[in-house]
From TrEMBL:
Signal peptide: none annotated. Residues 18-73 form the HTH cro/C1-type domain. The lineage of its organism: Bacteria, Pseudomonadati, Pseudomonadota, Gammaproteobacteria, Oceanospirillales. InterPro entries: Cro/C1-type_HTH, Lambda_DNA-bd_dom_sf. It comes from the Bacteria. This is XRE family transcriptional regulator. GO terms for molecular function: DNA binding.
Length: 79
């Protein structure tokens, strides 16, 4: 399973910028809908597309590998 580390990146950016970053701010800046951001943040294994990953990478100023995490053991557990 691939997990999007949205909550972790929000925490890191909040700490770095010394202010609270909300999903609403990410939504407004990236153009990604609030519903999609909520699903990415709260639904394990939520499937998204490369356009959304690209927009999040641009917002967080990171590479896809910094935003995505592979969990092969979770794939076996779901079968």
């Amino acid at each position: 399973m691939i997990r999007v580390l949205l909550k972790q990146k929000l925490d890191e950016k909040s700490f770095k910028d010394r202010r609270r970053i909300t999903l609403s701010e990410v939504c407004e800046t990236t153009g990604i809908s609030r519903a999609t951001l909520n699903r990415i943040a709260n639904v394990p294994g939520y499937k998204t597309n490369t356009d959304i990953i690209s927009a999040l990478c641009k917002y967080f100023e990171c590479m896809p590998g910094d935003l995505l995490q592979h969990h092969p053991e979770e794939i076996r557990e779901q079968k």
